[in-house]
């Protein structure tokens, strides 16, 4: 149960419980075929010692930089002995890093690695960023990096911007003005990948302070830089990583608002959803849900007049993606329904959704869905949002509650209210409570009619036993209060009888 509680808390916090962290190590960067020219430097690129007759130049066989003999020693990798600089040797030694969590102390104590941070060689920078992105697997490692080397992030975002400039060919200037200025678009891709990977893994936490750290830094524009990665000139894979990073950042209200303030937000959401890559659909929906929770203005934008070709009317947005959910993962399906639930909080959107067959599809799915872990959770969450939203809208709520409280749906809802293993319980109890608040007479008729047995069982269990979900208990108590004294359907009497049976 504890693990499932953890999972659910995660889901509530982030929209859903899909992986926030890139768990696979990124590939090592392309090796540089070109050697640095002997006359490009008079000092070793790592220790800065001057070259003399005795202190000779050596080239690292991997990065091609010029170094002194002390910094570029003979090492054996893959059975080949050759000269490698200390950074490359370190990278090769640690290339398979994919530990569940990693103590970064080893990095911070390595003064050779520190030379890279002050160096201007972008490729070595990419290597360093790669080391860190593969090691950030838990909050302890994230805290360590934030406290020890906060300046790394300034370089990360500078590199992201440079890579983007290179890839969209907006900038003709060379990458770094000093030595090793060669910078091809091919090399920009792994660099960009490592930078985004670092941002993703740094923010893949329930602790919002990491996302806040990145977005409140004055020396770089975190969200703005990531948006640049979404440029049409940049390939889809890099864009997917950008969305992943934005999704991790979108857990705070401030960040969600900023993210949705970009004019391309809706376009990017639509384009990515239509491409249908599982991880990317989940990230896009997670991001959209986080934004929809925080920014009511974005709701109407999410149902725009014509965001994509062939979608002429607002309502068709829901129709297009409802058809697509069948191809999506369970997590993505749940996310989609949660988003539409949020959309329905807005009257304009609700009217648009009402023009489609979304409501009947939702209710039918509730009666047939057996996956209580994610899909049913998403469906119930959606239904709860809608009932909650229409409470004040008497005409709409009378129609909607009548439709939603059919015995098929209500039996599932009652059963789920007392499902101790799933947070669906809270969602279900919330639905019943909202239905009572909105249309007491209609719902009372149903729970004293065909669903009476299941309803009495649910109320009895929630109110009179030690139930795991405090919130579900709270909603049920409220419902019992609303049923009140004029209980002609005999709910109280039946619950009391059950209590008595239990005591005996
Ligand atoms: Zn040296
Ligand atoms: Zn090297």
TrEMBL record:
GO terms for molecular function: zinc ion binding. Residues 38-93 form the FYVE-type domain. SUPFAM superfamilies: ARM repeat, FYVE/PHD zinc finger. InterPro entries: ARM-like (IPR011989), ARM-type_fold (IPR016024), FYVE-type_Zinc_Finger (IPR052113), Znf_FYVE (IPR000306), Znf_FYVE-rel (IPR017455), Znf_FYVE_PHD (IPR011011), Znf_RING/FYVE/PHD (IPR013083). The keyword Cell inner membrane does not apply. Keywords: Metal-binding, Zinc, Zinc-finger. Transmembrane segments: none annotated. Pfam families: FYVE. This is FYVE zinc finger domain-containing protein.
């Amino acid at each position: 149960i504890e693990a499932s509680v953890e999972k659910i808390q995660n889901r509530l916090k982030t929209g859903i419980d899909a992986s926030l962290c890139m768990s696979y190590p990124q590939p090592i960067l392309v090796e540089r075929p070109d050697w640095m020219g002997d006359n490009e430097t008079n000092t070793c690129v790592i220790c800065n010692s001057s070259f003399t007759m005795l202190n000779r130049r050596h080239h690292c066989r991997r990065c091609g930089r010029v170094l002194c003999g002390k910094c570029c020693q003979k090492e054996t990798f893959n059975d080949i002995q050759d000269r490698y600089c200390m950074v490359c040797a370190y990278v090769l030694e640690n290339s398979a890093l994919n530990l569940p969590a990693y103590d970064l102390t080893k990095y911070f104590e390595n003064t050779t690695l520190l030379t890279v941070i002050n160096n201007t060689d972008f490729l070595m920078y990419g290597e360093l960023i790669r080391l860190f992105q593969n090691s950030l697997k838990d909050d302890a490692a994230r805290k360590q990096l934030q406290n020890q080397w906060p300046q790394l992030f300034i370089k990360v975002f500078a590199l992201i911007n440079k890579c983007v400039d290179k890839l969209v060919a907006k900038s003709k200037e060379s990458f770094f003005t000093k030595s090793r200025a060669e910078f091809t678009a091919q090399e920009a891709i792994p660099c960009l990948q490592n930078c985004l990977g670092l941002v993703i893994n740094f923010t893949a936490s329930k602790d919002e302070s990491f996302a806040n750290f990145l977005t409140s830094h004055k020396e770089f524009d975190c969200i703005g830089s990531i948006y640049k990665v979404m440029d049409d000139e940049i390939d889809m894979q890099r864009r997917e990583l950008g969305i992943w990073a934005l999704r991790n950042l979108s857990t705070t209200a401030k960040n969600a608002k900023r993210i949705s303030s970009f004019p391309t937000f809706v376009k990017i959401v639509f384009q990515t959803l239509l491409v249908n890559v599982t991880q990317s659909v989940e990230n896009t929906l997670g991001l959209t849900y986080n934004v929809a929770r925080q920014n009511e203005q974005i709701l109407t934008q999410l149902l725009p007049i014509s965001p994509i070709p062939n979608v002429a009317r607002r309502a068709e947005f829901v129709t297009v993606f409802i058809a697509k959910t069948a191809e999506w993962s369970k997590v993505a399906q749940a996310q989609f329904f949660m988003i539409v639930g949020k959309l329905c909080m807005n009257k304009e959107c609700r009217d648009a959704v009402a023009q489609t067959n979304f409501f009947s599809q939702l209710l039918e799915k509730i009666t047939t869905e057996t996956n209580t872990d994610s899909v049913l959770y998403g469906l119930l969450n959606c239904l709860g949002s809608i009932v909650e939203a229409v409470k004040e809208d008497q005409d709409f709520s009378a129609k909607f509650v009548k439709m939603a409280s059919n015995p098929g749906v209500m039996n599932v809802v009652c059963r789920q209210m007392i499902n101790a293993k799933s947070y669906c319980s809270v969602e279900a109890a919330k639905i019943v409570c909202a239905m009572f608040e909105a249309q007491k007479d209609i719902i009372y008729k149903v729970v004293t009619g065909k669903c009476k047995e299941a309803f009495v069982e649910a109320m009895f269990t929630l109110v009179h036993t030690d139930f795991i979900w405090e919130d579900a208990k709270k909603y049920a108590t409220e419902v019992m209060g609303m049923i009140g004294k004029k209980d002609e359907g005999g709910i109280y009497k039946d619950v009391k009888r059950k209590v008595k049976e239990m005591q005996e």
